[in-house]
Amino acid sequence: MKRSGPRSFVARRLVLGAVQTVAVVLLVFTLTEALPGDAAVALAGDQPDPARIAAIRAAMDLDRPAHERLADWATGLLHGDFGTSLTSGRPVTGYIADGFGPSLLLAALTLALLVPLGFGLGVLAARHEGRLVDRLISSATLAVYAVPEFALGVLLVTVFALKLTWLPPTAVGFGTDLLGHPAVLVLPVLVLLSRPVCSLSRLVRAGMVDALASPYAAHARRYGVPGARVRYAHALPNALAPAAQQLARTVDWLLCGVIVVEALFVIPGLGTVLLNAVAERDVPVVQGLAVVFGVLTVVLNLGADAVAYRLTPRAGVAA
Q1: Which of 235, 240, 206 is nearest to 309 (CA)?
Q2: How far from 148 is each of 18, 152, 155, 160, CA to CA, in Å?
Q3: Is the pTM of this model over 0.90?
Q4: How confident is the prediction along the chain (319 residues), in pLDDT tens digits per residue?
Q5: For the chain, how big is the Rg over CA atoms in Å?
Q6: Residue 231 burial by Cβ neighbours in a 10 Å radius (0-12, 13-18, 19+)
Q7: How far apart are CA 155 and CA 144, in angstroms?
Q8: Cα 178 from Cα 171, distance rounded (Å)
């Protein structure tokens, strides 16, 4: 089968990304419409007045057909208008901007540590395949990966914050300037780092072990190519494509799925904003955040596909 060129591959991925983005918008609107209860009743208070409920429904455009509200909302998204919060009257973009900074900071710090640790452990385990170092790394990464983030976070808080009092247990009282108080970030970053570093190191190890056992690696060694060159110039690139896709999924998770960690350490990021919006039945904020999360997922996976294609062009055959 003839392999498609890079431009054709990128064009197909862009079309797929556009279709996925439209699907995300439709899915988000449909799911929020299907939420149980009535947002107008929830916002009216404990003893809702029918006139107040009717006024809230009119203000929220809930008395209009769903397809009209979908069209208006989608049109606003195209112009960067995510709507207005029902509880505070603030633009939804303000909530996203406030929460994006702490979430991005946590993601950047975690990723900065994840890449050298994940690749370093994977290369070290592959270099000592079957020996004590390999068994220790494999056992440790498997054990750490099996521990849920919430349980690990509680354990770290109990030991380092409550027992030893070395670190603050939460970010309460530190505001949004987390970078100015680095001690607050230590425990959340450790929890966020725990599982991704395990999966990344095991991926790198598996890719390098397969490459080192391949005929071309044995052929290179027979011709006197140094072992370090075989490992790092031939075997390591073989593990980069799946590792790049794993990194994309990790970044997606760090930006969109760290709700448990942010809630545990009271980090004012996107996850906390989403939890508060759901609790208050603030539908425009929930919709705006869901669209941001969905689009980030699409963009990151498109980038990972492009990197994987660049590293292993044969993937274009199946694409």
Answers
A1: 240
A2: 34, 6, 11, 18
A3: no
A4: 445 566 777 778 778 878 888 888 888 888 777 766 666 666 666 666 777 777 777 766 666 777 777 888 888 888 888 888 877 878 888 888 888 888 888 888 998 999 899 988 988 888 888 889 989 999 999 999 888 888 888 899 999 988 988 888 888 777 667 777 788 889 999 999 988 999 888 888 888 888 777 777 777 777 776 767 777 776 777 777 777 778 878 887 787 767 788 888 888 888 888 888 887 778 888 888 888 888 888 888 787 777 777 766 554 444 4
A5: 24
A6: middle
A7: 13
A8: 8
